[in-house]
Structure formats: C-alpha cells, structure tokens
Hints:
One of its GO terms (biological process) is oligosaccharide metabolic process. GO terms for molecular function: Glc3Man9GlcNAc2 oligosaccharide glucosidase activity. It comes from Pedobacter psychrophilus. Pfam families: MGH1-like_GH (PF22422). The chain is an alpha+beta fold. Among the domains are: 3-339, Distorted Sandwich (Beta-galactosidase, Chain A, domain 5), CATH 2.70.98; 508-764, no CATH class. It has 27 helices and 35 strands. The protein has a nine-stranded antiparallel beta sheet with strand order 6-7-8-9-17-13-12-11-15. A six-stranded antiparallel beta sheet has the order 1-2-3-10-16-14, with helices on one face. Helix 23 (757-774) runs antiparallel to helix 24 (792-804). The longest helix is centred in the middle third of the chain and has 22 residues, at 544-565. The chain is globular.
Amino acid sequence: MKETEKLKNPQTWRKWGPYLSERQWGTVREDYSENGDAWDYITHDMARSKTYRWGEDGIGGLSDDNQFLCLATSYWNGEDDILKERLFGLTNNEGNHGEDVKEMYYYLDNVPSHSYMKFLYKYPQTKFPYEKLLKENQKRGKQDPEYELIDTGIFDEDKYFDVFTEYVKNSENDILIQYTIHNRGSKKANLHFLPTLWFRNTLEWSEADKPTISTMDSNVLLLQSKKLENYYCYLEEEATFLFTENESNDKRLYGIDNQVSYVKDGIHEFVVNGNKKAVSPQQSGSKAAIYYQKEILGKNSVTIRLRLTDKKTEAPFKDFDKIYKQQLAFADEFYNEKHGEKSEDEKLVQRQAWAGMLWSKQFYYYYVKNWLEGDKGEPTPSESHQHGRNFDWKHVMAADIISMPDNWEYPWFAAWDLAFHCIPLASIDVGFAKDQVLLFIMERYMHPNGQMPAYEWNFSDVNPPVHSLAAWKIYQMEKEQTGKGDIEFLQKVFHKLILNFNWWVNRKDTEGNNIFEGGFLGLDNIGVFDRSKPMPGGGVLEQSDGTSWMAMYALSMMRIAMEISYHHPVYEDMAVKFSEHFFYIAGAMANMNNTEGAGLWDEEDGFYYDMLHTDDGNWKRLRLRTLVGLLPLIAVEVIEENNWEKLPGLVSHIEWFTQKRPDLASLVSKWVGQDGNSNMQLLSLLRGHRMKCLLRRMLDENEFLSDFGIRSISKIYEENPFEIEIENETFNVKYTPAESDTGMFGGNSNWRGPIWMPVNYLLIESMHRFHDYYGDDFKIEMPTNSGNYATIEDAANQVAKRLTSIFLKDKNGNRAVFGDNKKLQEDPHFKDYIVFHEYFNGDNGKGLGASHQTGWTGLVALLI
C-alpha cells in the first residue's frame, strides 16, 4: 500500500511510531521533589535504576501510541562503566549554556505512517568521556562555546560504530527491524549490542495484571499484555535472552530493600559487571534484552534482523527483503512527489528536515491532578509539591502523541512551538497537523478561562498566540493539496480560539488600551529587561511584539471568520468583530492613551520601539533595535476583491467604520483606487512608508541582514552596546551572535543576535503578502545601500535563500550549520547527516542551542 493510501486510514497505520522519548529523566512530570528541582530528582545516573511514572526513554526507539510496549537499542563497548541505554547530556546547572545532549545521533528518514523510519547513532569504541564532558563544560563560562562530544577527539581516528536502525511496516502491527552496524575504524572491534523490549510500568498504580515477556523457543519472544494483543518478536539470528523487571532498584537508589528480585538495571549489571544473578533464570519478565556480542572487522559491517508482529509465522524472514525494498520505494515515491524540481542536496536536506519533524512525535503523559496529589499506595507528596507548579491546571489530562520541540532537550510540548511545527507537518501529513492544532484547544488542555498551557515548567507562562495563524495556513495548504478546504476544522478552531482571544484581551491588555505587555512572549532575553518579572521602578512595558502578535491574531481570526462565512453567513458578524479589534490595536500602536508622542513608532529612526510607562505617568522610549520592532510587518492580510464582495455586511460595516473613525482606518487600510493592485484589499499595521522604513532596516547587512537570514538584534550593538539607566540601575544589551552570555531564562537560548527560523519564516511570508498587493512595480533596495533593487517578493526569496544556505553545501562543499569543524564538513560519514538546531550564529550560520530541534527549524523544508 502506498503512503498516500495509508494516510486515508491514519489512526491504524500510526499505532506504532517513534513515540519513545530520548529523555524522560529530569522532566517536570517525573519530579515529586519538595523544591521543584526536576533535574536533580531523577538524574541520568539514577535513570537506569528508577522506574518512571509518566513515560519511558531510549535510543532510536519505537512504541505503540499508548506506550504500553517499547523497543530501543542498548550498547556496551567493553570499556564504559555503564550500559548505554539512553543518551547522555548535561543538566541545566551542569552546562555552561544550560542543558545539552552530548551525543551524535541523526533522524535520517521517516514517513507520516511510520512505515519506513531510519535512525543513526554513533557509538565510540573507546571509553565514553562522561567525566571529561562534565568537567570541561563546568570550567567554561557563559562567554565560552559549549564543549561537545566531537570536541573531545573521540571520533578523530574513526574508532566508533555507526549503528543504523530501520523500522519497516508490512502492516499496522507487523514491523520489520533491521540494524546495520558499521565499524568505521581500521581494526576489528567488539560491540555488545542489545535490542531491548519492555512494558511501561503501570502495575504500581493500577490493579491490572502484570505484562510479561517470555521465550517461546530459541529465536522467538512472546509479549503478553492485557492492554495490547499478544505480540511475537522473531530473531533471524539466535542470541542470548536476558530478562528482568521494569521495577526500581531501591537498594541502589535509596539504600532500602527492593520489592522484587529483579530490577530495571539488572541487564546493565549482567553485561557490564558480570552479575549473573541480576537477571531472571525463569526466562520471563517485563523487560527483555536480545543480547548479541559481535566482533566486527575494520571497515566492515554486520546486519541484525528482527520482526515484531501480532501474528504467528513459520517463516518470518522469507519476505523480509521484498517488504523492505517495497516500503523504501514507497517512501522514495512519496518524497519525490513532494520535492518537485530540486537539486540532490536540496532534496537531502528537505527530506531529513521532514524526517526530524516526524521523529519528534512523542507520547506525552501527564495528569496534573494525579501528579500533584500523588498515587494511591505511594508516599504522599509534600505540601509544597501539592500546591506548587501547575497547581491551577488540575484539569490537564494529557496522554497523546504530540510533536515535541526536541526529543532530548525539550521533551515536552511548547504551545507556540507546536503551532509552527504544524505548518511543515501539514505539507506531508495534513491530518496529523490538524489533530495537533485541535488538541490544545480541547477541554483537557485549554484552561476554562481560555488560556492555553505554555509548557510543563509553567503552564501559566505566556507565549505568542500563533494557533490561529497555524490553523489558517493548514487550511490553505489542504485546500491547495486536495482542492477542498476543511470548513469543519476551521469552525472547531475558531470557536475555541474566541475564548483564547478574549483571555488575551482581558488578562494581557491590563490598561485596556489594546497594547499588550508582560510575560515570557517567547523571545526570551531579547529585550532590555527580563520581561517575565516586574519592571524596574514599577510601571508597565508596552511591547511592540506583544501588540504585533495580537494584531496578527485578530487578522487571522477575521480571515477565518470570513472563510466560514462563505458557507455559513452567520459568521460574518464575527469577521466584523475581529476587524474592529485589528483597527483598535493599530490605533493604539500609533497613539497610546491619546498621549501625543507616546506611540510605539519612532519617525526619526523609522522603527518601532517598546515604551516603558512608569508609575509617575511618564513614557520612556527604549531605543533598542531588535526583532521586536520588525514584528509589525507580520500583521498583514491581503484579500482578493471577489472575496470581499461575498460579504456585503462586512464591507458595509468597514465603510461605516472608516467614516466614523478615519484616524484608525487611515493607519492600516488600502482600498481600491489607491496605489497597488486594484483587485486586492490590504489590511496591515503598516502603510507603504513605514513598511519601507522597516524593510530598509531589516535588509541592511550592517544591522539585521546576515548572510544566513535575519538576526534577532541589530549588529550595530556589537561595537556600541545599548545602555539605559532607570532608578540608578544601568541596563545594557550587546549584540551576541552565538550562545547567550547571561543566565536569563535558563541561559540555553539567545535572542540577542542569532537567527531564529520561526520569526524569519513569518517575515518572509509577510513580504510575500505585501508583494501580492503592491506587485512588481514596487521595488526596494536589496540589500540596503547596495544600489540593487528588487520586488518585495524577490527580496523575500533572497532572504529565504540565505536561510537555506545554513544547511545546503556552499561552493566549497561546506555547510554553515557545521561551523569550522573539519570532521563534520569533510568526513563522508558525517558531512551529509544534517542536524536542525534551535537557532544559528548571526554571523556565520553555525547551529546552536538544542541540536535536534527539527520542530520549528523544520520550517526550512518549506523554504527550499
């Protein structure tokens, strides 16, 4: 069955997928501490011995969509002190720039049905430098780069294994597994390789019968659980079976007696320490490893094959090659249709970007009420835990497959990240993208007051409201793909987002002036102050970006209401409502509280700045040029004239409104007969003059325009940092193109110089919308002061090309994302494996932050 046919029955084909997290330890869900220190409650060292409550983790793993049964790989090179069952990384306190995974692994391929998936893990043959990575990063300061695994030199002599894991589905419950292990070194080397199956521990918290894995004969495992039908795991080549239980080793962890004879780390004890009593002689348990000991000659490889199926079969490997080739061919066919006319390198990057998006789907389980109160039969959590983090979100009951920002560094959902994830996901699996948007407006996620949960560290934090944008974009993409839009989907989204929009208006517009302030707002440390904390000296920070996000929100809600109105005219009044919201927001940005000169726009600089409204009633303009001041560009909508004509009530109201409030209408609207395309209507925060002013700044290589996209802050602050004094305290901001030099917001992200894909994507999209209206006759200088002029669309395409050049080979065959690392740039076993980082150096495009954040960085798939 071809991939497109499988997507017609997605729930069946998506039952098994890459839903196993790369890290469950150190998460909020597993933290029952009194002080809320999730990183220390379960550490990497404890993880091999402690049973998790809310999920599982493993390397390149697979699970069913309820994560009852898991499969992943474990490794031992004969040198390490521990069995490698999960990826290693530093905690937020251990890393000089916050938490960071210290491994080399790659998401190489995946299709929406997960009928073909490919993962690569690079495992050193010499002792893994756990201690060296920890100590060197602790020695380094905020001014220094992170010390990565490849920096230790452990790969320099090619003494490592490349382990490729491939999953191939013959049917929804019949999964072929192929491991190809390459010895990249010149000499033979030994590898202890353990594909491991286990059931998530639900026994301690329910009355359900315990699931078991046992032997049927020398090359078959039987997996029995009341939560799943029986499964069989067939081995092509016989191996040693090791059995234990997925139960905590309380003796090692806490110095108290174990409740069972065989515990979670029993297989580690057997393999690494030779403790034969650590595994069950009964040949059964809830955790089982298939133990291979392989001696692999230099520059050679071995292949190991398994088959996990719900059907008994006499010849499980007879049709293996045929099925493997067929599913790989279906994957190739699917992506070749998606690629279109592109170079081979563009196809490689685009396909790996999509693969990373799909590998980042994770089973996320978190019932907040249960977590706060504790489980029956377990110790009652402390009073501070019961009334601590996420106390106001007891209604949240998550047990879903969710697109994660990064499976190791951010193995939890983030609401605004997710909205961006859905856009590239919609290009390959529009059904899943729609499901993700709808998930977060369901009653078991959205707060009764209309707020959406931000992320598990603090559900009450505030992120930019981009769900409506994602919903509208997904609708348009599906309409383009199939010729028909899903109006019912738009209606479902629209109804619930009205609640969310009203929450924003009531909670974040505290002074009732349509200017939105406060909170995290997703851009972390971009501003002068920590925006999640009270302003120095009191007062309120009136934010250009918060207001721009809300203007975009109002416009997208208006556009959704218009689209629904073509089918259900009763929605036309809602289009009117959101058009008025947009007008009022636009007016407020220009003139706050009718105070002359108190608008966010600065005519002298041709830029938008935040304003600090102090307790004594004064206004202070913060003349810091950042991405914040460019964001008014994103609030733009162009509507074809024939679409206006379908809604005479809306047109009539806007005409009436412009007569009564010409001060507002003149700020944002271009109507038929004015400059531009006479078949279009433009709604934007910007008239032509202000748009050109912002584009002039944005496209200036001395300010925002890098060779690799739009920087988050102007480069002018590299030599001349911004400074301001308030209440005898001096605040400053310097252009910092790489990692953050402060600990603000955890210190593991930086918006004071680097390039971020999601906002670049929005700016590029807005430029295309402006071009739709102004057309080919409207030219801008690209780059600024170059003497070269281009249409707005051409300029947008040039910015997109700079962004994609982060990943694509340059004329010398190098990829900017790899920086100056010669191994990554030149080695044939590294140079074409792409990682999609969280953000990128504002000067040279090197990848920074979370190394596998194919979430919103996956947007690059749409820019190629």
